[in-house]
Design brief:
168 residues; OB fold (Dihydrolipoamide Acetyltransferase, E2P); mainly beta; 8 strands; globular
Length: 168
């Protein structure tokens, strides 16, 4: 158990990883309580500054490799510079420094796997209990981003916004 992280062993039963809490689901479309999945995992590799490949402990000595798109809170993810952006290598380097291959983490998600089949949206806690997304934002390598709004960093092929010349 990592200090400060949710425990995968405090559950309402059924394998130790599924917990419910009161409130709406992340989409707000249901009054049923949302289900949280808390799992131990090991970092396989950093894909980019806001996506990490993990070997997730499913229980019963079963493990599966999934990518985790990092969240700050249930409907708020983080966005980091993409390939081609001047700060991309710095952001990926910061993520790799925090999440070396073999690092044990705790992950929490409100959904199992996304529509792409191999990725889930989740929060990550490091072995010392610190939350990865908060560390990336505090270091300036990531920005908070809510689904359905424009991303803070341009995608591949998009141009960076032009800054106004202060002398004009």
């Amino acid at each position: 158990m990592l200090p400060g992280a949710p425990s995968p062993h405090t559950s309402s039963g059924g394998g130790g990883a599924r917990r419910t809490f009161t409130g709406m689901t992340t989409t707000g479309k249901s009054t049923r309580p949302a289900v949280r999945y808390v799992r131990n995992a090991v970092v396989d590799k950093v894909v980019d500054g806001d996506t990490v490949a993990l070997l997730v402990d499913l229980g019963w000595q079963l493990h599966a490799k999934y990518s985790c798109r990092v969240l700050l809170e249930p409907d708020v993810g983080i966005d980091t510079p993409e390939k081609g952006h001047p700060e991309y290598l710095d952001a990926v380097g910061a993520a790799k420094a925090l999440l070396k291959p073999g690092t044990k983490v705790v992950t929490e998600s409100l959904k199992m796997i996304d529509k792409y089949g191999g990725r889930f949206d989740g929060r990550l806690w490091l072995p010392d209990g610190q939350e990865f997304a908060q560390l990336m934002i505090a270091s300036g390598y990531a920005k908070a981003w809510r689904e359905g709004t424009p991303k803070p960093y341009p995608r591949a092929g998009q141009q960076l916004p032009l800054e106004a010349d202060p002398g004009q």
